[in-house]
Specification:
alpha+beta; Anthranilate synthase; 7-stranded antiparallel beta sheet; ADC_synthase; 8-stranded antiparallel beta sheet
Length: 301
């Protein structure tokens, strides 16, 4: 899986769904969500209730939607992988399945004696006003710093690492038509670093779970109506001399008959339910537009 924009470009999937239909004819049907905007808003309020009880500080809630399709999904998946701002853009495919990612977020990278994670939290439209609003938002900054602290703690528990430090805090990066806040957390490798220990420490990513992580996962299990599938996991490269894993946000999966997509956001005490529903829709919109392409479909049901 290509990662960090430094490896080979994504290739059209071979042997994936509808691989025999090379004549095109791609058409995307109407999207059907696993929960309505009202149900999503109710989940936001349920998280705020849990925060009020002292059970959690932040929970990332994620919704799922799927749409039927006909024809060859390969070109549509390549459009997703090619979205601007994707640090991990690519396509994977097998017998009867395929997925595409346009993830901007580094879950963990190990290279040149250094471990790095780049959590992303905080979203606004990619306008100058949106950039100023994101930088000035106390709510977004508090949500972001909470996850940075969680990631620092995850790395600090690993043997074989030196002091963990925040190299960059709340830097604004662009993904398609959205500004997002990103930090860089790193530690030097000072001893033996076991891959299994590393993955146990960082998975699942703090930015797609919440804090405390185990309590947040418990809330997620109760609130989300369907599983997260390939989303919110890890995708990238593991080699003898480096590791580069992206968090599989902005990721879609295709089976023999449907396209699946996920989007969500972090909920804190200061969250507004309607704003959180709108933010999830804004994150999903570029993915849906890329998938629709020339299909003429993609309406929401």
């Amino acid at each position: 899986m290509p990662g960090a924009g430094t490896h080979e470009p994504p290739r059209e999937p071979a042997g994936g769904p509808a691989a025999a239909d090379r004549g095109g004819g791609w058409r995307l049907g109407p999207w059907r969500a696993s929960w309505s905007p009202r149900e999503h808003a109710a989940a936001v309020e349920a998280v705020r209730d849990a925060i009020g009880r002292g059970d959690v500080y932040q929970v990332n809630v994620v919704g799922h939607a799927s749409a039927p399709y006909t024809g060859d999904p390969g070109p549509a998946l390549l459009r997703v992988a090619g979205l601007p701002g994707a640090r991990y853009g690519g396509v994977l495919a097998g017998d009867g399945w395929a997925l595409a990612t346009a993830s901007p977020e580094t879950l963990v990278e190990v290279r040149d004696g250094r471990v790095v994670t780049r959590p992303i939290k905080g979203t606004r439209p990619a306008t100058e006003a949106g950039r100023r609003e994101l930088l000035a938002s106390a709510k977004e900054r508090a949500e972001h710093v909470m996850i940075v602290d969680l990631e620092r703690n995850d790395l600090s528990r690993l043997p074989g690492l030196g002091p963990v430090r925040v190299e960059e805090l709340f830097a604004v990066r662009r993904w398609v038509d959205l500004w997002q806040a990103e930090s860089v957390v790193s530690a030097p490798v000072t001893g033996r670093l076991d891959l299994a220990d590393l993955l146990r420490a960082v998975c699942p990513g703090g930015s797609v779970t919440g804090a405390p992580k185990l309590a947040a996962l418990n809330e997620i299990g109760h609130l989300e109506p369907v599983g997260r599938g390939v989303s919110m996991g890890a995708i990238g490269w593991v080699a003898a001399d480096y590791i580069d894993l992206g968090l599989s946000i902005r990721t879609v999966a295709v089976d023999g008959s449907r396209v699946h997509a996920w989007a969500g956001g972090g909920i804190t005490w200061d969250s507004d339910a309607d704003a959180e529903v709108a933010e999830a829709a804004a994150k999903a919109a570029p993915i849906r537009a890329a998938l629709a392409g020339d299909s003429g479909g993609g309406a929401t049901a």
